[in-house]
Write a structure and sequence with these properties.
The complex is a heterodimer. Chain A is mostly helical. Chain A is built from 16 helices and no strands. Chain A is globular and about 55 Å long. Chain A starts with a helix and ends in a 14-residue tail after the last helix. Chain B is α+β, with helices and mostly antiparallel strands. Chain B has helices spanning 19-32, 52-74, 91-144, 147-162, 181-191, 228-240, 252-308, 331-345, 370-380, 393-407, 411-426, 428-434, 439-446, 448-465, 486-491, 535-568, 572-603, 615-624, 646-691, 697-711, 727-751, 754-772, 784-824, 841-855, and strands spanning 10-18, 36-38, 170-177, 197-202, 207-208, 215-216, 218-225, 244-246, 312-313, 319-327, 352-356. The longest helix of chain B has 57 residues, at 252-308. Mean pLDDT of chain B is 84; it is low at 146-166 and 694-722. The chains are: A mainly alpha, B alpha+beta. Chain A binds chain B through residues 35, 38-40, 43-44, 47-48, 50-51, 59-63, 122, 136-137, 139-143, 149, 152-154, 156-157, and chain B through 45-48, 52, 55-56, 59-60, 62-63, 66-67, 180, 183, 186-187, 190-191, 233, 236-237, 239-242.
Chain lengths: 351, 856
């Protein structure tokens, strides 16, 4: 499957690639956002979305609309599209698509554990889970009291099991440990996905490794920045860094030693693309936050994925772009609903 | 009216609608359906327009109606479609409608929640009933077997350790979805480390899910465990898997009692459920009677407000200003509709329609009927005619089926096709009423008149080719006779018939009378050709020439049609600089070629057919100026020219063609440049005069006249101002046009040879079908042959319809389409207009219905 994969690509995945490129064509443009931010009410928003690719997706919702209904419907549309693609996919694309869902599964697990920790009923938590990452055993998560139990009883049958092996040692399920579990899971997931994409080779590896490397580095930065002022030791922190990014190994070593924001920034100085992101970011009003800068960079990478043909990166990128779009619309909708228009412009346009 | 030749004359009009009458007026215009509104606020967002609230209310109403419709469909109640078309209700009725729908929706929702609660109750009771029944079996099994050993081995150790009497096993019973069982079992095992005992049994009858109404399969399970800790854990797992747990009494007596109680409650519930269903049914039946009409009303209101959103408010906010395109011939009706609208709304101030002049090119509106619509659609799919341009559709009515038939020439196939077309035409009304959504069928049905005509023409050409399912029919008696004796015929495989008037001999070299009777077969191809070995050679030569002649005739006709365009758009320059050179070019080469074909047919009879010169070589030599001396005795007769002065004539024609190509290339741009320069000169003089103190009125008039005349000859008829004149552009454009036309003439003429090629292919295919398939049925002499023939005929008929009629028909159709679009229309048709899309309720309702069908 190496070398000549472009030759045979269209036999198995040509239709789906075409489909996803078509879907991508329907992603909202800058012009649509300019119209959306002018909306006075959520009904205006609905009216405008009707003229885009979303069509009548809100037509059967009774007024007045709420942001959560819009959010659900937006997600539902993405999920329907993704499921359609997944149902038509064959190996190795199907595994690739499954990998995409794993990250949502991790999020769901963490959400459920946190919820149970705060003794919220499971029926209340389930609707909050991302539908892309739902799995059968998900709802039984709250029986677990320790990570080992969680693994042995619930996760051992899910595809996430191999990622979880590193977490079993944790003793208790408290806030801190949940964060650690989340990040360890993510680290294992990213590294595994990275290996899988490299094995696929060709343009897929080229595109996906770039995106995943950025994802890994972003996590490393954010973990470091968020760990300041917590009881997380530097050693523990270093264990959470995904080792498939461009920061590995020197940058990660430097990050592990960092004590404050400026030191993180100094690490980024050595990497051209991250330097730019840190330079443009600030917390003053009018400045973009570092998080937004990261999102912007991610969008750029994902859009670039569509520049090449015959690879699986477009599927990943489409899901991520759509996710960003959902975030944008929900952001705008929230601003509109709460009549808080000052920050309505801080969506991240997808070019 | 003959309006199909050109599109209708349109005018831009301004409508001043009083705000109170606007709604009714637009509604009247929508019923009329001859006005196309222009969007006067294209930059305004959909949600910032004036009537956005009304549109939104309509959408809300539609949502409610869809909800009710869904409920009606769920219950399978037929919706009454009386086909009546209510007027758009007055704006104040909208509130009534809204209230009605609101009431209905609420009622429906209430009924649904009630029904859902009842059904849930019912489901729970049914599940409980099943649990009691199934668990009884479990317990019975336990009692039947000597349970003592099992209990001891299971619990013996624990009992002895704890030193208390044998612990009683706790159990829970419940119901779970059948597909979740394996995961459930696995998780139970893992989470409880194998310390529970699960037993399950399937519920045979599927149960109804109260929310979705789906039928789901479920299982009864019972879990035995020991201790409180395990109990909570098991309960958590059950909750996680959405299993419903039910209390199950421990003693058989209690269970029996409970079962009886459950049964009576189920009975009670059943009656209540039935009543709820009846009520729901009554509400829905009442709604089903009106729902179609309601849909139409709401869609009309929505369309009206949508249109009103296109309008501008005037300064005083008292009236709406709309701009619209409308056909001039309909102005009366529009005025009438406006007056009606004003009367209906009871306003004092009438609505005013004001014609405007514009430089914009109006939309193209061809009035069609059910017969011409299909042909117009063929033309429009290439490109909608420019405004008032000559429309090729009326000519296509005849030329399209004819050219198709030239390629599809078989009377038998033609009959089948014509009958199919005829059936669709006769059954038209009932077929339309079926409202099929099958795309393929709708395509065929839409072209029913084309199919009918194509079939009829195919019968005609089939008779000319004398092809009837690839066999020839001897109607009038062949014009040939045979002078051979029976022995000769039996002894030889191939024999020649002598077409000459003199010097005919038989096999024994004795002179005989010629085999040709002396008069041709009265209509079409002589059937004798069907048994000749050189049939293909003969038909090829005939069909090739015929294709060229038909093609050149059609192209000439196309060029001639362009003169109507030039004259209508007042472009005399185009007549001189384009039409005339084009005619000369086409005629001097290809017109002449056709003349040669006919000349060759008529001058060389059977006697000296061998001397007939090749037309193809003749055409090539015409351009090489290579001629043999006509009177030279040494030259083989078929190398000679066709007639004495051919050399002079052909040289002249070639020179004419080259000259006309030059004229086509140069005259128009050069002339326009001269005009432009002249105008510039005059303008500079005029400027000088203007700056001088004494300005005479005459000078200005001359100046105006000049500028108008120079603006007119531009191709689009407007917009070409003096300043925009660009000689380079114009020259390149003309250059392209010239090259396109001259090369086009050659390639298009060659392209018409597809008439021959497809007709040959069709003939050969049907012959293959005959000899390879149907012929097989004739080889048995016995009675068994009848049965074989029966089967073979079926195969033959299938193949004939599948391959020859459908596939070959489609291919011939495509080629005909191409010949019309590329070869014919390129001679005169710009097709750069845009279609007239009137605001019409009929269209809007049809579209709504179509999209409705798509969804379901």
């Amino acid at each position: 499957m190496t070398g000549l994969s472009e030759l045979y690509f269209n036999i198995d995945s040509g239709y789906l690639e075409g489909l996803v490129r078509g879907f991508k064509g329907g992603i909202l443009k800058q012009n649509d956002y300019l119209n959306l931010v002018q909306c006075e009410t959520l009904d205006d928003l609905k009216l405008h979305l009707q003229s885009t690719d979303y069509g009548n997706f809100l037509a059967n919702e009774p007024s007045p609309l709420t942001v959560s209904v819009i959010d659900d419907k937006l997600k539902e549309k993405l999920v329907v599209e993704f499921q359609h693609i997944r149902n038509h996919a064959v190996e190795p694309l199907s595994t690739f698509l499954d990998y995409i869902t794993y990250s949502y599964m991790i999020d769901n697990i963490i959400l459920l554990i946190t919820g149970t920790l705060h003794s919220r009923p499971i029926t209340e938590l389930i609707p909050k889970c991302h539908p892309l990452g739902s799995f059968e055993e998900m709802e039984a998560i709250h029986i677990a009291g320790t990570p080992a139990e969680l693994y042995n009883a619930v996760l051992v049958d899910t595809p996430l099991a191999p990622f979880f092996v590193d977490c079993i040692s944790e003793q208790d399920l408290d806030e801190m440990n949940i964060e650690i579990i989340r990040n360890t899971l993510y680290k294992a997931y990213l590294e595994d996905f990275h290996v899988y994409c490299s094995e696929l080779g060709g343009a897929t590896a080229e595109v996906m490794c770039e995106i995943l490397a950025f994802e890994a580095d972003r996590r490393a930065f954010i973990i470091t920045i968020n760990s300041f002022g917590t009881e997380l030791t530097k050693d523990d922190r270093a264990k959470l860094y995904p080792r498939c990014g461009k920061l590995h190994p020197d940058g990660l070593a430097a990050l592990a030693r960092a004590d404050e924001y400026e030191q993180v920034r100094a690490v980024a100085e050595f990497y051209a693309e991250y330097k730019q992101l840190f330079d443009g970011a600030g917390n003053n009003p009018g400045d973009k936050t570092l998080e937004d800068k990261f999102f912007e960079h991610e969008v750029k990478l994902n859009v670039n994925a569509f520049m090449q043909q015959f690879h699986f990166g477009v599927f990943y990128s489409y899901v991520k772009l759509k996710e960003q779009e959902v975030r944008n619309i929900v952001w705008i909708a929230e601003c509109v609903a709460q009549r808080h228009r000052a920050k309505i412009d801080s969506y991240i346009p997808i070019l | 009216m003959g309006s199909l030749f050109r599109s209708e004359e349109m005018t831009l009009a301004q409508l001043f609608l009083q705000s109170e009458t606007a709604y009714v007026c637009v509604s009247e215009l929508g019923e009329l359906g001859v006005v196309q509104f222009r969007d006067l606020n294209p930059d305004v967002n959909a949600f910032q327009r004036k009537f956005v609230n009304e549109v939104r209310r309509c959408e809300e109403m539609e949502r409610k109606l869809r909800f009710i419709e869904k409920e009606i469909k769920k219950d399978g109640i037929p919706m009454l479609d009386t086909g009546d078309n209510p007027d758009a209700p007055a704006p104040r009725e909208m509130i009534d409608l809204e209230a009605t729908f609101e009431r209905l929706e609420n009622e429906m929702k209430e009924v649904n929640t009630n029904a859902e609660a009842l059904k849930r109750n019912f489901l729970e009771l049914t599940e409980l009933k099943h649990i009691l029944r199934k668990t009884q079996v479990f317990f019975d099994e336990m009692h039947d077997q000597p349970r003592q050993d099992e209990a001891q081995t299971l619990l013996g150790e624990e009992v002895s350790q704890a030193g208390i009497p044998a612990l009683k096993l706790g159990f829970v019973a419940g119901v779970i979805l059948r597909e979740r069982i394996p995961a459930f079992e696995r998780l139970l095992w893992r989470a409880c480390r194998g310390n529970v005992f699960l037993k399950f049994a399937e519920i045979e009858t599927p149960l109804e899910d109260p929310v979705t109404g789906d039928q789901v399969n479920k299982c009864v399970f019972i879990i035995f465990f020991q201790g409180e800790q395990l109990k909570t854990r098991v309960k958590k797992i059950c909750e996680g898997f959405r299993a419903t747990l039910y209390p199950c009494p421990e003693t058989p007596a209690e269970r029996r009692e409970m079962a009886i109680g459950v049964m009576t409650r189920i009975e009670d519930l059943n009656t209540v459920l039935g009543q709820t269903q009846d009520h729901r049914h009554r509400v829905l039946v009442a709604a089903a009677k009106n729902i179609k009409v309601w849909f139409i009303k709401v869609q009309k209101i929505k369309a009206i407000y949508h249109t009103l959103n296109f309008c501008n408010l005037d300064v005083t906010q008292k009236c709406l200003i709309a701009e619209c395109w409308c056909p001039i011939s309909e102005l009366e009706k529009i005025q009438l509709a406006l007056r009606r609208g004003t009367e209906r709304s009871g306003a004092a101030v009438p609505s005013i329609l004001n014609r405007m002049s514009t430089k914009e090119s109006p939309p193209t509106f061809n009035r069609t009927n059910k017969f011409t619509a299909a042909f117009q659609a063929l033309v429009d799919s290439y490109g909608v005619a420019s405004y008032r341009e000559v429309n090729p559709a009326p000519f296509a009515i005849i030329s399209f089926p004819f050219i198709f038939a030239v390629m599809f020439g078989d009377a038998g196939h033609g009959i089948v096709m014509a009958l199919f077309g005829l059936w669709m035409v006769i059954k038209e009304k009932s077929l339309i009423a079926q409202k099929s959504t099958n795309e393929i069928w709708n395509t065929f049905f839409g072209g029913r008149y084309i199919i009918l005509l194509m079939g009829l023409f195919s019968i005609y050409t089939g008779l000319i080719y004398n092809d009837f399912y690839s066999k020839s029919v001897n109607i009038f008696g062949s014009a040939w006779q045979s002078n051979y004796t029976l022995e000769d015929i039996e002894a030889h495989k191939v024999l020649q018939l002598c077409p000459n008037r003199i010097n005919c001999t038989n096999l024994a070299k004795e002179p005989i009378h010629m085999d040709y009777r002396g008069y041709p077969y009265p209509f079409g191809m002589d059937p004798i050709w069907a048994i000749s070995v050189n049939r293909i050679t003969y038909t090829n030569s005939y069909k090739m020439k015929m294709s060229i002649i038909i093609g050149v005739a059609q192209m000439l006709f196309g060029v001639m049609l362009s003169i109507w365009n030039h004259r209508y758009f007042k472009e005399p320059l185009n007549i001189i600089a384009e039409f005339i050179p084009e005619m000369i070019f086409l005629n001097s080469i290809f017109g002449y070629l056709c003349v040669l074909c006919i000349y060759k047919w008529s001058v060389w009879p059977g006697d000296d057919a061998a001397c007939a010169p090749s037309i193809l070589l003749g055409l090539i030599n015409m351009f090489l100026f290579k001629y043999e001396d006509y009177d030279d005795e040494n030259i083989v007769c078929n190398q000679k020219t066709m007639f004495r002065s051919q050399q002079a004539l052909q040289t002249l024609l070639v020179i004419l063609a080259v000259l006309s190509a030059m004229v086509l290339l140069l005259v128009k741009p050069l002339y326009l440049r001269r005009e432009h320069n002249k105008k510039l000169a005059i303008r500079s003089i005029a400027d000088a005069v203007e700056s001088a103190p004494e300005v005479t009125g005459e000078d200005v008039q001359i100046h105006d006249a000049q500028s108008r005349s120079s603006a007119d000859p531009s191709p689009s008829g407007h917009g070409m101002d003096g300043e925009e004149f660009d000689f380079g552009d114009l020259f390149v454009y003309q250059c392209i046009h010239t090259i396109e036309f001259c090369l086009g003439c050659i390639s298009h003429t060659a392209s018409y040879l597809r008439l021959w090629a497809l007709s040959l292919a069709h003939g050969q295919l049907s012959e293959v079908l005959w000899t390879m398939v149907l012929h097989m049925g004739f080889i048995f002499d016995s009675y068994a042959g009848a049965f074989v023939l029966f089967a073979v005929f079926a195969a033959w008929a299938m193949l004939t319809i599948g391959i020859l009629l459908v596939m070959e028909g489609l291919s011939a159709f495509l080629h005909t389409l191409r010949l019309h679009w590329v070869e014919f229309q390129s001679k005169f048709y710009h097709g750069s207009g845009y279609a007239f899309l009137p605001f019409s309720f009929e269209v809007i309702l049809d579209q709504a219905q179509a999209s409705d069908h798509e969804v379901h």
